[in-house]
Amino acid sequence: MVKRRSLKGDYCPSARSLDVIGDWWSLLIVRDAFDGLTRFSEFQKSLGIAKNILSERLRTLIARGILKAVPAANGGAHQEYHLTEKGRDLFPVMVALRQWGEQYLFEPGEKHSRLVDRDTGQAVRLDVRTEDGRLIGPDRAVILKVADPEQP
Known about the structure:
Strand order of the largest sheet: 1-2
Oligomer: single chain
CATH superfamily of the domain at 13-91: Winged helix-like DNA-binding domain superfamily/Winged helix DNA-binding domain
Strand content: 5-15%
Structural class: mainly alpha
CATH architecture of the domain at 13-91: Orthogonal Bundle
Number of strands: 2
Distance between the termini: 33 Å
CATH topology of the domain at 13-91: Arc Repressor Mutant, subunit A
Radius of gyration: 18 Å
Shape: globular
């Protein structure tokens, strides 16, 4: 297997973000944590993931500050995994992935899970806006790249 190259020093925020949270198991663990799962056995059952892979992903998510391990709320011997502030700040990323999947990966009328406001039951939507509140799409956005001092 080819070793993955680290993007930690990349000038692109997207690349650095993918370096931290870019594998699908990690994103599915984060999804389940948003859904209230906290125990190793709950993640394992939900994902059907091998225990050794789950252990490694949980360790990585803890090391990167996305999750924290805490003593069990019921005082038991096991530990629980909770999203940190950094982890909770992935909420818009997860909503964006959901919206894209809803739009492109389901047939019209095909059933799928829905993300709704707990109090009203209304669907959650994510819009991209400028600092002054205007909606903006990819045709109006531009990336201001940083020059790499190591490149001629």
